[in-house]
Recover the amino acids of this structure.
């Protein structure tokens, strides 16, 4: 079977760490299928463009996976240039795809919805299976993040496009488990039957993760100190991540053996580092940005790994969540602490850590001290449960679920 994976941002992970389509391609090819990934040439969150001449598209094979880059403009931030870039990819995609043999199936990803819609239109044109993969609820996320109100013209237009995608695709795969709750909230269940809606969460490619945590071990005196209970945050340091809350929690911790280690970068980092100095927060260390290849080594040696969010955006998690970071934490085999309790909560379901009802500094501090002082058998149970979750969400298993959807779009996943 020839399968196209269309995802605006799915360039090779060495350029941008969005590896879901790469993992799918890798395992689909192992199963004997031919796969191509179509992505924009502009690399998100960077000034890199993978096409620097006048070529309208370019094909590249990286680690055995075939990528086709569609020439798109550069952009920075979330302004009009990025919106133009999204529309440009969707508009140019059909002209690039005509250079390749007709596929048997197309899996097109939203976000953004424009490229997803373009992929579904191509599937209808070619008469092949068209699967819409919804990785982010647009425009619901725009409303939840306070970027626009529910009656804003852009939101209304995107909502119509969203419904068209769900209706016209052969199957819809969501990365959040409660997505059909959302469909019912919109009143669309008559047009979009539950039978065509599937759930394939994000996950972790477990074999290379386990290899990397041993072979790419990053030296760190704090992680290697058996006298320290380390609270690890690894990720962006931006307003939505609420990292400042961790500084407040660190100030509330009484246990002198606890230390908060923060890996990552973002526009809030300089101000937070200054807070540490000004407020003399002695149990917080900013470690800076680190290459993704070292994340397995870091999270596998933490006392607890933290999922942290700004409290006001928690409403978007009522349908569940699917952060890549969560599955890396699970694979690390140590407890996970989430400062918000989401619906369809895998941390609670697996008993792999603690989710808080109230994201306050005091609540976080109490949970950290509970884990730091837990009996060995209790702590080890958290660790074992985290690894069990990682095994269940290994991308080898998730790829089989995707193939089941392609082969049976209107049936339950096997």
């Amino acid at each position: 079977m020839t399968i196209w994976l269309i995802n605006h941002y799915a360039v090779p992970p060495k350029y941008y760490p969005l590896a879901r389509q790469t993992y799918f391609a890798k395992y689909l090819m192992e199963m004997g299928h031919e796969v191509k990934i179509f992505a924009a040439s502009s690399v998100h969150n960077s000034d890199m463009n993978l096409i620097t001449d006048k070529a309208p598209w370019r094909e590249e094979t990286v680690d055995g996976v075939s990528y086709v880059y569609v020439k798109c403009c550069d952009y920075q931030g979330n302004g009009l240039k990025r919106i133009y870039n999204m529309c440009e990819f969707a508009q140019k995609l059909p002209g690039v795809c005509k250079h390749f043999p007709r596929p048997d199936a197309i899996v097109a990803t939203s976000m953004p919805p424009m490229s997803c819609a373009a992929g579904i239109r191509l599937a209808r044109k070619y008469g092949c299976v068209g699967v819409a993969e919804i990785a982010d609820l647009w425009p619901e996320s725009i409303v939840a993040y306070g970027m626009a109100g529910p009656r804003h013209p852009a939101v209304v237009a995107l909502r119509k496009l969203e419904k068209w995608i769900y209706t016209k695709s052969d199957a819809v795969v969501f990365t959040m488990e409660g997505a059909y709750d959302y469909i019912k909230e919109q009143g669309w269940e008559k047009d979009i039957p539950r039978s065509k809606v599937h759930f394939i969460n994000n996950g972790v490619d477990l074999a290379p993760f386990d290899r990397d945590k041993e072979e790419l071990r990053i030296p760190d005196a704090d992680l290697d100190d058996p006298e320290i209970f380390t609270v690890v945050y690894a990720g962006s340091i931006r307003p939505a991540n609420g990292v400042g809350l961790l500084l407040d929690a660190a100030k509330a911790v009484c246990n002198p053996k606890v230390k908060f280690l923060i890996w990552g970068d973002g526009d809030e980092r300089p101000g937070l580092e200054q807070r540490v100095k000004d407020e003399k927060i002695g149990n917080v260390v900013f470690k800076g940005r680190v290459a993704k290849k070292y994340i397995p080594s870091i999270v596998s040696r933490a006392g607890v790994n933290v999922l942290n969010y700004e409290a006001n955006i928690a409403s978007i998690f009522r349908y569940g969540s699917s952060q890549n970071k969560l599955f890396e934490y699970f694979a690390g085999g140590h407890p996970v602490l989430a400062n918000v309790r989401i619906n369809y909560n895998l941390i609670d379901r697996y008993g792999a850590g603690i989710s808080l009802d109230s994201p306050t500094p005091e609540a976080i501090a109490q949970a950290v001290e509970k884990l730091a002082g837990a009996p060995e058998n209790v702590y080890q149970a958290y660790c074992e449960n985290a690894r069990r979750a990682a095994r269940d969400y290994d991308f080898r298993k998730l790829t089989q679920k995707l193939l089941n959807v392609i082969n049976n779009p209107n049936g339950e996943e096997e």
Remarks:
- The chain is about 40% helix and 15% strand.
